[in-house]
């Protein structure tokens, strides 16, 4: 008897019909995520403390957290690193989101334009945009504006693509329903059309935030005189490994925190599966 | 019930797609409170006729008059139920039912009270807080019916509303629709391809032929109301179904032959 039939004989229900259990080995998915995190941190701690990995390369996790704390009580860190980066990320995210949804709608309304752009849009993230960064910064100069602009260029396409996906998914019955209720174009767009596309749009926004963050930090790495990216890169070059990891921890916490927040928001409006 | 001047008058309705004639001189009336079904083979244009009466589609030839006024667009006094579930997934059942009144600017308390009454009328009173995704297909169509009932319509247009449901469910839900509609004075045009459904619900059944679509016959269903599920499978109902099927059979065969010829 094979394993599958043995299992079926035991439970009477084929495996593909059984519900996925909420817990595995007594823990929920969320608790397993925490266990994984603790294990990774412990591994870093042990590797660094035991000297298996040189202290010049890796510091213990507890020291990383300590260094992050030190940075967060250093006023200069906010002014020269954290705030410039956050400002550029937020500006890029907002501009990419608003402009992306608008452009997505315009392209979606113009099938000929969409067909023409389709190949470029789908291949966009295969292009090594980062390779062009030094060139683009050389053209535009340094400062927040060019960095934010680069981030918008990098992040906007995923907003456009996901918005168009969302608009594609609006069933034609919604248009019929709205017309039978004799509502205006504006009301149709805001109350019927856009809400239908919202879950997909939010997926794009979630990616756009991560792309903005990635893009701003990379640009700061390469050519800038401020920001967290610049701080990490200069700390590294000066062999200040502790503060470098402290800044990395801060970036990870911000990225994961905002992403979780956006994921929560996405789940709240994702009614499609009936889980909302 | 079927006295006085007709509420819906369709005269000489025609439509062409390029050289081919889709609708040809479609003409009928619906009296106040009358339940009229429109049956015919696929593609005969019955949904087109319904959408024209609903003001969702323009017509070039002929005239459509509802309540003594020519149809130029959607009307507030006409409710339409579509084949696809027309519920908005992010709204609760109650707010989906209240949608029509909301779009007319009726205040929140008033429209919710009206929506709850309509939900009770279609037997979904206990599901006011549910989302459409938590309802079955039959329940969602009853939500659409409840939404139409809230506007106290003078005309209800139903475009194969139960077409996606299984046969048992559809007849039960259809009888519920009939009961709910009978409590109003609305005239109903019910487009369906189910002969049994048409016979069960209607005062009168119009039979449409295909290519070009036109009314080829009419069967008056002289069964007392209210009608219940005990009628299903009865000799009387089967007799009416046979009378509807007789002219339809030839049309259906002809339409099928034309489709096969086209796909060769």
Walk me through the structure.
The complex is a heterodimer of chains A (276) and B (264). Chain A has 276 residues and is mostly helical. Chain A has a single domain, classed as MetI-like (MetI-like fold). Chain A has helices at 3-11, 29-50, 61-72, 75-109, 111-123, 133-140, 144-168, 172-180, 185-222, 228-237, 241-269, and strands at 23-24, 27-28. In chain A, strand 1 and strand 2 form a beta hairpin. The mean pLDDT of chain A is 88. Chain B contains eight helices and ten strands. Chain B has helices at residues 46-53, 93-97, 99-102, 108-121, 137-150, 167-182, 195-201, 235-263, and strands spanning 8-17, 20-30, 35-39, 61-66, 69-70, 78-81, 155-159, 187-192, 204-209, 214-220. Chain B starts with 7 loop residues before the first strand and ends with a helix. The A-B interface holds A 171, 173-174, 176-177, 179-183, 187, 192, 195-196, 198, 269, 271-274, 276 and B 54, 56, 73-76, 79-80, 82, 84-86, 88-90, 99-100, 103, 131, 133-134.
């Amino acid at each position: 008897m094979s394993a599958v039939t043995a299992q079926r004989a035991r439970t009477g229900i084929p495996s593909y019909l059984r519900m996925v259990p909420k817990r595995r080995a007594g823990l929920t998915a969320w608790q397993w995520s925490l266990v994984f995190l603790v294990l990774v941190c412990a591994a870093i701690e042990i590797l660094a403390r035991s000297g298996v990995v040189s202290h010049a390369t890796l510091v213990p996790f507890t020291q990383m957290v300590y260094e992050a704390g030190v940075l967060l009580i250093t006023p200069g860190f906010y002014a020269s690193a954290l705030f410039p980066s956050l400002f550029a990320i937020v500006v890029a995210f907002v501009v990419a989101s608003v402009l992306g949804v608008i452009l997505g709608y315009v392209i979606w309304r113009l099938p000929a334009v969409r067909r023409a752009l389709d190949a470029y849009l789908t291949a966009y993230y295969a292009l090594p945009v980062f390779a062009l960064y030094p060139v683009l910064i050389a053209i535009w100069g340094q400062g927040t504006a060019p960095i934010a602009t680069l981030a918008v260029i990098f992040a906007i396409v995923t907003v456009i693509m996901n918005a168009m996906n969302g608009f594609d998914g609006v069933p034609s019955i919604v248009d019929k329903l709205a017309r039978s209720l004799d509502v205006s174009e504006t009301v149709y767009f805001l109350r019927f059309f856009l809400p239908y596309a919202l879950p997909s749009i939010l997926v794009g926004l979630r990616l756009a935030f991560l792309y903005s963050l990635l893009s701003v930090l990379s640009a700061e790495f390469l050519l800038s005189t401020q920001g967290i990216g610049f701080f990490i890169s200069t700390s590294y070059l000066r062999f200040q490994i502790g503060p470098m990891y402290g800044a990395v921890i801060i970036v990870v916490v911000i990225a994961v925190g905002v992403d979780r927040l956006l994921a929560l928001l996405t789940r709240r409006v994702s009614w499609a599966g009936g889980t909302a | 019930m079927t006295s006085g001047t007709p509420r819906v008058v369709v005269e000489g309705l025609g439509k062409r797609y390029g050289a081919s004639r889709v609708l040809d001189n479609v003409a009928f009336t619906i009296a106040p409170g009358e339940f009229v079904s429109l049956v015919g083979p696929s593609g005969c244009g019955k949904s087109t006729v319904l959408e024209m009466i609903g003001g969702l589609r323009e017509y070039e030839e002929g005239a459509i008059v509802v309540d003594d006024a020519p149809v130029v667009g959607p009307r507030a006094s006409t409710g339409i139920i579509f084949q696809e579930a027309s519920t908005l997934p992010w709204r609760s059942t109650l707010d989906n039912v209240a949608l029509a009144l909301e779009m007319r600017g009726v205040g929140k308390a008033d429209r919710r009270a009206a929506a709850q009454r309509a939900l009770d009328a279609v037997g979904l009173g206990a599901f006011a807080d549910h989302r459409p995704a938590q309802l079955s297909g039959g329940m969602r169509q009853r939500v659409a019916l409840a939404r139409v009932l809230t506007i106290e319509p003078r005309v209800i247009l139903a475009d194969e509303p139960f077409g996606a449901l299984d046969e048992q469910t559809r007849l039960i839900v259809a009888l519920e629709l009939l009961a709910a509609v009978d409590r109003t004075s609305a005239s109903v045009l019910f487009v369906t391809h189910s002969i049994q459904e048409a016979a069960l619900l209607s005062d009168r059944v119009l039979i449409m032929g295909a290519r070009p679509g036109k009314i080829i016959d009419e069967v008056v269903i002289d069964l007392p109301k209210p009608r219940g599920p005990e009628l299903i499978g009865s000799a009387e109902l089967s007799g009416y179904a046979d009378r509807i099927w007789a002219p339809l059979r030839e049309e259906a065969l002809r339409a099928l032959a034309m489709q096969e010829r086209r796909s060769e």
